Amino acid sequence: xxxxxxxxxxxxxxxxxxxxxxxxxxxxxxxxxxxxxxxxxxxxxxxxxxxxxxxxxxxxxxxxxxxxxxxxxxxxxxxxxxxxxxxxxxxxxxxxxxxxxxxxxxxxxxxxxxxxxxxxxxxxxxxxxxxxxxxxxxxxxxxxxxxxxxxxxxxxxxxxxxxxxxxxxxxxxxxxxxxxxxxxxxxxxxxxxxxxxxxxxxxxxxxxxxxxxxxxxxxxxxxxxxxxxxxxxxxxxxxxxxxxxxxxxxxxxxxxxxxxxxxxxxxxxxxxx
Length: 273
What we know:
Layout: H1 2-7, E1 10-17, E2 26-28, E3 30-34, E4 37-38, E5 45-47, E6 70-73, E7 86-89, E8 95-97, H2 103-111, E9 116-118, E10 126-131, E11 142-147, E12 159-163, H3 164-173, E13 188-191, E14 206-209, E15 213-222, H4 238-248, E16 251-260, E17 262-265, E18 269-272
Parallel strand pairs: 12-13
Antiparallel strand pairs: 1-2, 1-13, 1-18, 3-4, 3-17, 5-9, 6-7, 7-8, 10-11, 12-16, 14-15, 14-18, 15-16
C-alpha cells in the first residue's frame, strides 16, 4: 500500500453521474463501473421528434433550459438488474419520474418544444452543437452536426476524467471566473498536487483507479459552449471557454474507455497501470 501511495498520480475526490443527457446530475460516494462508464450514466436523453437529433445544451439557442432540470435515480442502480426510474426535477421544484406516462408532455411543456424521452439510443445518433465566436475553437459562430458513439448518448467516450490541477490552473489564469467542476460535467475528479494541465500527459496511457477499474485515456476533452452557461448559482461566463482555448487548446480533462470494470470510490488512488 505504501508503494502504491508513493506512485499514485492522485486521489479520487468526487464522482458524478448524469442520468439524463444535458440535465444536472448527481454526486456520488461510490459507483459500479462497466464498459459503459459509471453505471446509469447518460442512460436517458431527450430527442427532437422532428429531426431525430438528441436535445443538448451544446445548442443553447435551441435548448436554453436543459440545465434548469436535474435528474437523479430513485434508488441506486445495481449491476445485473434493470436500471431504476429517474426522478426529473423541474425548475420550479416539481418533479416527474421517467416511468410516468406524463413525463414527456410535462417536460415538453416547460421546454416549449415537443420531445421524446428515450432510454436507448439508435445505431446512428447525433446532436447539434453551437460554436461561439471564440478564438482557438475548431469552428466559430456556427452550428455543426456532431455524431455520437453508436447506441449511446455519450459525446465521445464513456468516461470523462478531470483533475483539480487543471481547474486550479485555469482559476489562476482567469481569476475573474468561477471555475468549479460542475461546469465541466466530469465523471471522475482526481485531486493532484500539481497546479497544471496534468491529465494531458495521461493520453495514450491506461490509468488504474482503485483496486480493479482500468481506464484507457484516449484523448483530451475539447470543451464547448456548455462550460459558459449558467447552472445553479454559477453565472454565464464566456471567459471560462476563452481561458481554456487560450491556455490549453480548449481542452479541460480527458476522455477514456473502460478496459476493466469494477467499483470506484471517493478516496481511491489513481495511478498509471
